[in-house]
Amino acid sequence: MTRSSQDAILQRFRQELVGDNLFHEGDSIGTDDETLLRFLRARKFDLVQSKKMFADCQHWRKTVEGIGIDQLYREIDPFDYPEREAIFDCWPMWFHKTDKKGRPINIQIFGKMDLAKLYKVCTPERHWETVLVNAECLPREVLPAAARAAGRSITNSLVIVDLKGFGYITISPSLFPSLTPRNRRLSQFWQVKALARSSFQISQDYYPETMGQLVIVNAPSSFTVIWNVIKPWLSKETVDKVDILGNDYKRVLLDLVDADSLPASLGGDCTCEGLGGCEMSGAGPWMVGRKGWGPRAQASQVEAETVVVTDGSPSVSSMSF
User: Where would I find the CRAL-TRIO domain in this sequence (predicted)?
Assistant: First the structure.
């Protein structure tokens, strides 16, 4: 399909969405051409299918979790919420700087997955809400910031999934007393299968074409079995973007990412020293000048506003710098 044909379909797509009251200036889904092109590309520029996908997405955005994604995002700052440290301890998933193409990097450490441990301190419902706002922050904050930093359009991300340590764990008898000792030794994947599938579905259906490349590293030989389960969940276009590597992955990642942007745990030089480490830092152009609304941001604001007045002037000891 020629560029002029795509442009013509894009303009018709926009006009029909407006005419069907599915699209309004200022919608948080995004009103730029690139947002609309993501839906068109996901449905191979089939106008009917693209409209259905967009309509389904708008409905989901208004109704998800009973309050809609906009309200959920107002309630949970994806970079600052009370359960963030506990969740990252059991399922680390974070954005970290950009690759050589200017794409934001999303890193997920599957080897640390432990939902049984997580759900002792965080409900499954709350965890799922944090997954949703993490997905939402990509097109809402992360991609626009990456584009500003690169000085050009950046429309998708590089996803790195680390499977180091991903295998079998022992389930506590207190959690499932009816299981035999042999059956308690369940695969981490089978514990999170439903959650992983829902996450893939959300990404494909409501945030289409936002993953430019997926690199899976430290894949064990047994991963073939798991991949055969996951593969049917994914569109052919998504499968074509996946690279599966063993433990000899460092050269491949460094071809994609500068060493000072790649965490040391993945073969790079970055440690985000002084920022809480790469996992917790959220480092990237999206943090430049960002005003958060989570508990840390609120505490900082209170501290900044609390000034001890002495002789009509603020006390130097009470001022925040």
Answer: 83-274
Interstrand relation of 168-170 and 185-187 (parallel, antiparallel or unpaired)? antiparallel
Q: Match 């889904």 to its residue by tokens.
A: 29
- Taken in order 285, 289, 290, 295, the sign of the CA dihedral is positive
* Measured torsion, CA atoms of residues 286, 270, 157, 284, in degrees rounded to the nearest 10: 0
Give 21-52 pLDDT, tens digit per residue: 999 999 999 999 999 999 999 999 999 999 99
Residue 292 vs residues 33, 286, 296, 297: alpha-carbon distances, Å: 28, 11, 8, 6
Closest CA to 91 of 31, 134, 151: 134
Calculate mean pLDDT across residues 109-136: 93
Contact of 219 with 52, CB cutoff 8 Å = no
Query: Rounded to whole angstroms, how far apart are CA atoms 198 and 206?
Result: 12
Going by the DSSP 8-state scheme, the letter that residue 317 receives in this structure is: G
C-alpha closest to that of 106 among 220, 288, 256: 256
